[in-house]
């Protein structure tokens, strides 16, 4: 990797963030945790669709965090724990050996957070959440996205440490998605999200699940995962617009184009090509990445949330921008420099010296609330990705230098 990112600056920020997360026992608030409020539980007349939506949006949008007086507890979130686990493994590969002792407890915690009374390994959020038009999702209800990230983290463990138990759990997660969420009605095909009963077309969910299936197929050789993966990936790839973009989903209420879900799509397609041994999505990836790079960044490096407007500048978009730019560093010579610009802008505008990242920068104010899953877990993964890439680049340079000396 063309090293234009300061190793020392990223390392310092990473260790400060890691210490913050450790000191909070990996638990915290979430943008969507309003329905965990004990006040809401005590006032059941407020516990209906409109009040639930209103409270969730109020807490999410408020520049002042009012969760403490509303008795919203900090929680460990399965998806956050999965992201932390993947980040710790990257830090280990980057030479931060003192993080080794954190990996096994993180695996145990992720396994302990599995959804109960389900014959598969699967995961849900640590809060109930009210969807816009499809009912309430109870706390801990397994869903595709949480399950996919948890299984991917366990596959990271397997690939780095050959832990067969982690592979078995990841396979069980893939079987949950295959048996409970995959559907094909002859005309359309996809993976249900956020509930098994909903046959919606959410493209990032389709691509993420397809990528997990291909990865499981690579390690197990089980053909039952490959065909559905490619079928769903082809369906969502065909929904790409001529300019390279995707809507979030195909429902009328889902027709927006945003930064981090587009990044999910592109990275998942890259993984599908790698693990399924196919090149059929390469043009889709190139077109999508050209749109991504052209529409989601200001000149100063600030990542846009939507393709046609800057605000809000969201920390999740920051993290996914860094990850996506580095994943596709070979597609554009300026990707590493742009990732560096994103990092530097974020440290200036969204970093708190207490060791965490803010949630959002709005046009006239900044929401400084610390969210463990949405903000800190994703940024730790992004920064650990940078450190791993820099470490690998340095190793490659040393090998090249040694080879040059031998030739001389």
What features would you highlight for this structure?
three-stranded antiparallel sheet, two-stranded antiparallel ribbon, disordered C terminus, 9 strands, 408 residues, globular, mainly alpha
Distance between the termini: 25 Å
Helix segment tally: 14
Subunit organisation of the chains: single chain
Number of strands: 9
State mean pLDDT (0 to 100 scale): 93
Class by helix and strand content? Answer: mainly alpha
Q: Any low-confidence stretches, pLDDT <50, length ≥5?
A: 399-406
Radius of gyration from the CA trace?
21 Å
Share of helical residues: 55-70%
Shape: globular
The strands making up the biggest β-sheet line up spatially as: 5-8-9
Order of helices and strands: HHHHHEEHHEEHHHHEHHEEEEH
Main sheet properties = 3 strands, antiparallel
Strand content: under 5%
